[in-house]
Design a protein that fits this description.
The protein has 190 residues and is of the alpha/beta class. It is 35% helix and 22% strand. The strands form two sheets. Strands 1, 2, 3, 4, 5, 8 and 9 form a seven-stranded mixed sheet that branches. The chain binds zinc ion.
């Protein structure tokens, strides 16, 4: 097959050059209000790969990105997950779309958290990509959490303004859950 980003012939999704260039873990932590959000990749490095979420191949790309992020997180947070029994939810984890990109990320982190698939589905199917902060504030997703009293990690592909993460946190707390922190593949804040 051909490498997804440079079209060189290779035996996996990305050739070795592109793996070395784009799949470098560069961990960051962002605090939004009182929520800690961990991220793993430079947005510029993987923005093209993240766009595959609209296509079938995206499930394999997201799995590759998430597994590498998970391996890194495991080295820094093993002790934490020994102390807590934590569950994980993905923002707008809606498997009706064929596959759910946040579901794929949850699956890659199942050695640390127990995934709850299909949670936090949006009542309003509003698209945020390329929209202003004002638009995002005026059009909340209407996320709903129904899994009750649990310790939770919230997963998403990217964090931009942090509004979706905060909306998810509020929905979980309203439904009786306790949010530990957020995990995303990439922090897209400029
Ligand atoms: Zn390549």
């Amino acid at each position: 097959m051909l490498c997804l980003t440079c079209s060189a012939f290779c035996f996996s999704l990305l050739c070795k050059n592109c793996r070395d260039q784009f799949l470098k873990v560069k961990p960051k932590i962002r605090i939004v209000e009182d929520l800690k959000i961990y991220s793993f990749y430079n947005y510029q490095d993987i923005s093209l790969l993240l766009n595959t979420k609209y296509y079938a191949i995206g499930s394999r790309v997201f799995s590759l990105l998430a597994k590498k992020a998970n391996a890194h997180f495991l080295t820094t947070h093993q002790e934490f997950f020994k102390q807590y029994i934590a569950h994980g939810v993905g923002i707008d984890d809606d498997p009706k779309k064929g596959y759910s990109h946040t579901g794929v990320i949850l699956h890659a982190f199942r050695n640390m958290i127990t995934p709850i698939y299909g949670e936090l589905q949006a009542k309003n199917k509003v698209k945020y990509a390329g929209k202003s902060l004002e638009f995002r504030q005026k059009n909340p997703r209407g996320l709903v959490y129904k899994s009750g009293n649990k310790n939770l990690v919230i997963f998403d592909d990217i964090v931009t303004t942090g509004l979706s993460m905060l909306e998810a946190k509020k929905a979980i707390e309203k439904g009786g859950g306790n949010v530990l922190f957020g995990v995303v593949l990439s922090d897209a804040k400029k």
